[in-house]
Please model this.
Amino acid sequence: MLTILAPAKINLTLEVLGKRQDGYHEVRSIIQAVNLCDSLHFQSGRGIEFASSSPGWVAEESLVSRAASLLRETTGCTKGASIEIEKRIPLLSGLGGDSSDAAAVLRGLNELWGLGLSRDELLELAPRLGSDVAFFLYGGTALVEGRGERVTPLPLLPHRWVVLVIPSVPRTPGKTKRLYSRLNASHFTDGRTTERLVESLKAGGGFTPSLLFNTFENVTLTRSSRLSVYRAHIVKTGATSVHLAGSGPGLFTLLKDKNEAEELYTRVLQQGMECYLTDTATAVEIVE
Ligand code: C5P
Model:
């Protein structure tokens, strides 16, 4: 059996530069993979079958089914597979779980079926599934531009522990689209914040939380929102810098020290919040 790990991600920066002619938004973002992973187990089979015991996960609503069909259509491959997904990444939380699973399906079936597609060939398919899928063909730390499909690997962020909190607010499909549609010119930035972090990583320089930025916080973490109440609560629990993961509602804080991270994680759990302790991840490998 072939097993592929599909990591979650957080956006260290997420700048939206403006709206494009095709309806998407031009983004400049630094994405970091984290070691909270779904596991995908691949076995040869007749048709294409997906299974997961995760409550609320439905294959037909996930990008994984489309990823498998797309790979078959483009290569003409008629082989089958049975794929079991162990979900650990919370659904619809801004951590990119479904996009990561879709990228893992591309990588896994490429290997299982012996298709020999290169990363560049898989990268051509990724944007047809979703804007975030391309990043997960790299993992590690990467600059992401365009609508998300242009990925440039960066030197890895110095190792950090990551405390993830999933606030108990409604999480509905289509939330990313709705969030983008709430953006106006006041939320658009020029990409320079991201450039600063790129330069710092390239220079092997230090990393400070002041370099983190996510324009969606200006929409979701407004003074009266439930999410900002959560953020304030996590800060009271001991976190210094709490940020939105992608389009949320996941929130994260980065820590250098393992003991501090474990203590924060324990305190947040004791407050009855859904919480994960993980750390920053390295790049993924593609077997061609
Ligand atoms: O690419 P994906 O299907 O994940 O995007 C979901 C929706 O989010 C898109 O239909 C679009 O409305 C919005 N989006 C955007 N600009 C991006 C990425 C997504 O406007 N760069």
The mean pLDDT is 96. Residues 97-112 form the longest helix (16 residues). Residues 24-25, 27, 130-132, 147-148, 176-177, 180 surround cytidine-5'-monophosphate (CB under 6 Å).
